[in-house]
Amino acid sequence: MAKNLVNYYSGLKGMSPEEIADYYSRWAENMKYDQDLNPGTYNGPTIMADEVADCFPENRDKIKIIDIACGSGRVGNELAAYGFKNIDGLDPSDGMLKQCEHDCLVLSGGMGESHVPCSGILQMIRIVKPGGLVLISMRKEFLENVGEYADKLEPFFAKLERENQLEMVERRVVPNYSFNRDGVLFKIKVKNGV
Fold it and tell me: Where are the beta strands (DSSP E) in 9-117?
């Protein structure tokens, strides 16, 4: 399976959210998700944890983080190594967790074909307190070749920024994000929320 992962997103086009959740559940149980997406092949969780650690150099045990599309919890494990303790995970294949306002929301690898839609950004900023951060990392190519994001995601961010709902603190290309391909990291500060 690992050799096919570079292009596996193309096979997800048109799947419903329920079908996607079922696919990931089966992958985790039968297809060895963690083995297929091991460090070195998929570096998103490490990149994300490093970025969160840079954003919160102190009082890490007090920072509340929610990891959207948490999968098997690699981002949470990486964050815990930095001393973060208040980490919740939310993934459709495992059910919903109690939502509350958080200091930081991370989404690493949850943006792709038939994954989190642009409108999902509204829910992300809704559950992060004003002044909190939303950190999103994804494959850079998805900004061009995934219909939900191509010429839509970044204009959506700009619209929310004009409406004073968020501030785009940083947009940065991240080399070797996944499968030797570049990623993009968005660092967003929540303003008034939704």
Answer: 64-68, 86-90, 102-108
* Contacts (Cβ under 8 Å, ≥6 apart) of 82: 49, 52, 53, 60
pLDDT tens-digit readout, 179-189: 999 999 999 99
- CB neighbour list of residue 101: distance below 8 Å, 6 or more residues apart: 64, 127, 128, 129, 132
Q: Which residues pair with 151 in a beta bridge?
A: none
Q: Evaluate whether 82 touches 49 at the Cβ level (below 8 Å).
A: yes
Question: What is the pLDDT, as a whole number, of residue 99?
Answer: 32
User: Contact at 8 Å (CB) between 132 and 102?
Assistant: yes
Architecture label for domain 2-190: 3-Layer(aba) Sandwich (3.40)
**How do the domains of the chain map onto residue ranges?**
2-190
